[in-house]
Design goal:
- With 237 residues, the protein is mainly α.
- It has one domain.
- The protein is 65% helix and 2% strand.
- It has a two-stranded parallel ribbon.
- Bound molecules: zinc ion (2 copies).
- One zinc ion binds next to helix 9.
- One zinc ion binds next to helix 4.
């Protein structure tokens, strides 16, 4: 049993690392096409971002691997595979619940990470990326990586989710994590400034966090930032 759990954790670490390399690599390539020269002279920083991100991949991979094993072998979690096991309207609802729960957790732990002591010990690693690049998506100190790694593995025990919706959550998490750091806005201005876009976080929003530090803490939605008056609007990265 223990051998299977370790194997699952190792496999998941490999998957998370590969997912990071593919997503960050693809958007770094897109950056070199769309904003040639943007990452010039950032070679040393990118090396650091990749090293911290690979450590984070293991920290994310271990709980994910244990839970994946328990799901397959012990029937843990509330992940379901039959489309009709729950009403179809629940599919988009569960997507929103997962994103909102993750966003809320991120907002408050992120604000905690900006308390001086925790910032010095842990979060300074993420903010060493100035300006961040597509490779900074998982560039976290291990303490911060742990706070991020436990969210989805805990949520799957609490909130029922179809396996395809879960895959979509992980895809959104990966793509937004990379693109929010890549230094330029990939969404059209028309969308970013639309009534819906005004509630969503994209690179124009998170870039301001990396410039000013004490604002724009959110992950997907501007809900908490607006409610707590920490929203300082958009930059034009
Ligand atoms: Zn960031
Ligand atoms: Zn921060």
């Amino acid at each position: 049993m223990w051998f299977a759990i370790v194997l699952s954790a190792l496999a998941m670490t490999g998957i998370v690392a590969a997912r990071y390399a593919l997503a960050s690599g693809a958007f770094a390539l897109a950056t070199s096409r769309r904003r040639p020269g943007l990452y010039d002279r950032l070679g040393k920083q990118i090396g650091r971002e990749i090293r911290w991100s690979l450590v984070s991949a293991a920290i994310y991979g271990i709980p994910a691997g244990v839970v994946a094993w328990g799901w397959q072998e012990r029937g843990w979690t509330r992940i379901y595979t039959e489309w009709t096991a729950l009403p179809l309207w629940y599919l988009p609802v569960s997507l929103l619940i997962y994103l909102f729960a993750h966003d809320s957790w991120f907002y408050w732990t992120h604000r905690l990470m900006h308390r001086p002591r925790l910032f010095r010990i842990a979060h300074a690693v993420h903010h060493a990326s100035r300006p961040p690049t597509a490779w900074a998506a998982m560039s976290f100190h291990p303490i911060e990586a742990v706070t991020g790694a436990v969210v989805i593995p805990l949520l799957v025990f609490l909130v029922p989710v179809h396996v395809a919706v879960l895959a979509l959550v992980l895809t959104i998490m990966t793509v937004m994590g990379v693109t929010n750091h890549m230094g330029w806005e990939m969404f059209p201005a028309r969308f970013v400034h639309s009534p819906l876009g005004k509630w969503l976080i994209t690179a124009s929003h998170h870039h301001v966090h990396h410039q000013a530090y004490n604002c724009n803490y959110g992950l997907y939605f501007r809900f908490w930032d607006r409610l707590c008056q920490t929203d300082r609007g958009l930059s034009a990265p």
